[in-house]
Amino acid sequence: MLQGIHFDSPIGAISAFCTESGISRILIRASGAGNLTGVMGIELLEQCKLQMNEYFAGQRKIFDLLLDWSILTSFQADVLRVTHKIPYGEVLTYGEIATRLGKPAASRAVGGALARNPLPILIPCHRVVSNSGHLTGFSAADGINTKSWLLQLEGRRVVAQKLA
After folding, report:
1. Are residues 16 and 81 in the same domain?
2. Would 61 be classed as within a structural domain?
3. d(CA 62, CA 60)
């Protein structure tokens, strides 16, 4: 059974959902997307809300939540497992992830897998940038502006949508 929790954050309204296997989806809507309030769910969702709020407040660098990987394709799971290990405040390029997977020519496929990340922030796809340092693609909330905000929260300097 899918259960969910809704809460506001500095980057917009967040909806988190879980199955019996763990957190399965995070949806982020840009600010002003509606008033999402109320709770329906279990302790895991409350922990997700708490940990995400701690992250936004600069008090948490590592999430300690059970995640449901079952809806992912094998390649997407491989990409997201590498991405999941990127430390707070650090970045990798799409090419570096492809190389770590043993598929150095798969940068675009890595980008495609990250574009469908069902667990943004928990699996920090915002920490993946182009080889030139430009911020590219972010499907949650306000796109690149949200990606920039998250990287700056983690101590990275961003100028004109590029790491400085």
Report:
1. no
2. no
3. 6
Catalytic residue, chosen from 110, 125, 135, 158, is 125
Cβ 138 vs Cβ 126: under 8 Å: yes
Is beta strand 92-93 parallel, antiparallel or unpaired with respect to 128-129? parallel
> What's the domain count of the chain?
2
The answer on 153 and 82 residing in a single domain is yes
Distance of alpha carbon 64 from alpha carbon 15, whole angstroms: 18
Q: Exposure of 52 by Cβ count < 10 A (0-12 exposed, 13-18 middle, 19+ buried)?
A: buried
Q: Which two tokens stand for residue 135?
A: 């911020």
Q: Is 125 a catalytic residue?
A: yes
pLDDT tens digits for range 56-114: 999 999 999 999 999 999 999 999 999 999 999 999 999 999 999 999 999 999 999 99
